[in-house]
Amino acid sequence: MTNETSVTEFILKGFSDIPELRLVSSSFFLFIYLFSLLGNISIIAAVTRDSHLQSPMYFFLKNLSFLDMCYTSVTIPKALVNSLMGSNVISFWECVAQLFLFVMLCASECFLLTSMAYDRCLAIHKPLLYGVIMSRKLCTELVTVAWLSGALYASFHTINTFSLLFCGPNIIDHFFCDSSPIMRLSCSDFHTNEEVGFVVGGCIILSAFALTVISYVVIISTIVQIHSAGGRWKAFSTCSSHLATVTLFYATGSVAYLRPTSQYSPTQGRLLSVFYSVLTPSLNPLVYCLRNKDMQVALKKLLAPSN
Predict the structure, then answer these.
(1) What is the Cα–Cα distance from 298 to 54, expressed in whole angstroms?
(2) Which domains does the chain have, with CATH numbers?
(3) SS in 3 state form for the chain?
(4) In whole angstroms, what is the distance from residue 55 CA to residue 59 CA?
(5) What is the Cα–Cα distance from 176 to 174, expressed in whole angstroms?
(6) Contact in structure between 179 and 153 (CB atoms under 8 Å)
(7) Beta bridge partners of 233
(8) 298 vs 225, which has greater pLDDT?
(9) Beta bridge partners of 91
(10) Which residue has the higher pLDDT, 53 or 221?
(11) I need a surface site. Which of 54, 103, 142, 245 has the fewest CB within 10 A?
């Protein structure tokens, strides 16, 4: 990152440009954040305590819940504090750290969802070899690779963003430090950096998505060959929660990030970011609780241990 940058702090616009709506929007985001924390902590506790939920699928789910909890904690608390205190200032290095952590967690979730798709593919397509192939060691390695890959991509993305020169305007049209609104504050030409970031990010996201799609093609082709309707439904039910989570993640993230840079709109960017950075991580626990009977039983045991 350049030493010529003279900006020492940025100002985040927050959740809303309208002062009268700040309290309402802050209350909404506080509720969503607390709901997300409660849901993800409950899943982590239920999987950890229940001996019936020690399979690879739930190992990945526990890691996904922890990742989602971190995901929302990187952006929402700072935005809430700024909104309630009436000061939207964030230091230059806080902004760097926030962008790095946000991108790392977002990319790590992308890779983790791909690993979860591979797990479901093996469980349905190779059930007899599943226990041998998907060992605890392999599960740990897949999660570790997801985190390390996310950190590596975040390092590139952060350097690509903050290698630009910032010497004048410092008002970020967003409620957290995201690359596109930050780049537009640069007093140097940011278009090359933006295009490079778009291409590299697009290649990574599309590669992970392609691997996930391939896994589900194998899953669906295997399910179709099952003769009984009950067998087909049982096989599909083991991956329906993950499929819903993947759909939420890629549907919201791709609309926000895989658009041509020439079509960037600050207002649309802020609105779309609410879906992929706030609502999606908060809905994941709800998806797994509604569609997974084993998880429902484990949560009931957790909330009512005397029964």
Answers:
(1) 12
(2) 9-303 (1.20.1070.10)
(3) CCCCCCCCEEEECCCCCCHHHHHHHHHHHHHHHHHHHHHHHHHHHHHHHCHHHCCHHHHHHHHHHHHHHHHHHHHHHHHHHHHHHCCCEEEHHHHHHHHHHHHHHHHHHHHHHHHHHHHHHHHHHCHHHHHHHCCHHHHHHHHHHHHHHHHHHHHHHHHHHHCCCCCCCCEECCCCCCHHHHHCCCCCCCHHHHHHHHHHHHHHHHHHHHHHHHHHHHHHHHHHCCCCHHHHHHHHHHHHHHHHHHHHHHHHHHHHHCCCHHHCCHHHHHHHHHHHHHHHHHHHHHHHHHHCHHHHHHHHHHHCCCC
(4) 6
(5) 6
(6) no
(7) none
(8) 225
(9) 9
(10) 221
(11) 54
The phi and psi torsions of 10 (rounded to 5 degrees) equal -120, 165
Mean pLDDT is lowest, of 8-17, 52-61, 130-139, for: 8-17
Mean pLDDT in residue range 156-183: 87
Question: What six digits make up the tokens of 196?
Answer: 């490079």
Does pLDDT of 305 surpass 60? no
Can you read off the two tokens belonging to residue 214? 């391939």
Pairwise CA distance, residues 82 & 75, whole Å: 11
d(CA 82, CA 86): 6
Provide the greatest CA pair distance for the chain. 68
Specify the pairing of strand 171-172 against strand 89-91: unpaired
Over range 281-290, report the average pLDDT: 79
The Cα–Cα gap between 42 and 298 comes to 10
C-alpha–C-alpha distance, residues 230 and 261, integer Å? 47
Model confidence at 141, pLDDT cuts 50, 70, 90, reads very high
Beta-sheet strand order (sheet of 9-12):
89-91, 9-12, 171-172
Nearest Cα neighbor of 49 from 289, 291, 305, 307 is 305
Distance from the first to the final alpha carbon of the chain = 58
Alpha carbons 285 and 302: distance in angstroms, whole number: 15
